[in-house]
UniProtKB/TrEMBL annotation:
Residues 10-70 form the HTH tetR-type domain. This is TetR family transcriptional regulator. The lineage of its organism: Bacteria, Bacillati, Bacillota, Clostridia, Lachnospirales. GO terms for molecular function: DNA binding. The keyword Calcium does not apply. PROSITE patterns: HTH_TETR_2. Pfam families: TetR_N (PF00440). It comes from Anaerostipes butyraticus.
């Protein structure tokens, strides 16, 4: 946890976070240097330690806004889903809402690419690993809720189709969609097209489970 700034001006803290962002982006966490960060920010190491306990604390302060934004987007989207009926989630507006949520994360990435890249390229860091574990848990919980809404469709055995393992796998598919977009360094317009296709593909699989694999019924309802 970051230390109280005390007599350290907010401008100094902001300069340190900016310098740390540049340092972590260039060298990665392991090879980054607090001395270089202080030099970039033109402050003393004493000023750094007045605001941050150590390099881990500084790193977490750099990526925290990204983690908070992603969580906010997903939680807001899920809140809307929980207020909907199962049928509403499967219609055109449901698809539009899903695409919009992923687009919001995507656009945030392109507007804050330096710090977002730090987060996504340091998935082994304990703070980042916990964050993505928490996201998977959030996706799992939402998946269980959606299974209750959607399980009353044509599926003869909803408990089997929407088992905990299946829901957990689907959570990872959704997470991997974001990882793929980031890791392949697409242009923004290309990534937007990919998002629409990926979301439709994932929704198609979910819809197939609801319809118990009846592809003809799925086709005729489109």
């Amino acid at each position: 946890m970051s230390r109280k700034t005390g007599n350290v001006p907010e401008e100094t803290r902001a300069a340190l976070i900016k310098a740390a962002t540049e340092e972590f982006a260039e060298y990665g966490f392991e090879k980054s240097s607090l001395r270089r960060i202080c030099s970039r920010a033109e402050v003393t190491t004493g000023a750094l330690y007045s605001s941050f306990a150590n390099k881990n604390d500084l790193f977490e302060s750099v990526v925290a806004p990204v983690m908070e934004q992603i969580f906010h987007v997903i939680e807001t989207h899920f809140k809307g889903e929980r207020a909907s009926t199962g049928r509403e989630l499967l219609d055109a507006q449901g698809e539009k809402n899903d695409i919009q949520a992923v687009m919001e994360i995507l656009h945030y990435y392109f507007r804050h690419q330096d710090v977002c890249s730090i987060l996504f390229h340091h998935r082994e860091h304990p703070a980042v690993s916990r964050f993505f574990d928490d996201l998977i848990e959030l996706l799992d919980e939402q998946g269980k809720h959606l299974a209750k809404l959607l399980g009353a469709g044509e599926q003869e055995n909803p408990e089997e189709a929407f088992s905990e393992d299946m829901i957990h796998w689907f959570s990872h598919l959704q997470m991997d969609m974001i990882f793929y977009l980031i890791e392949h360094e697409m242009e923004e317009k290309q990534a937007e097209i990919q998002v629409r296709n990926m979301v439709r593909f994932l929704r198609g699989g979910l819809y197939a489970l609801v319809q118990d694999g009846n592809s003809l019924k799925i086709y005729h309802q489109k």
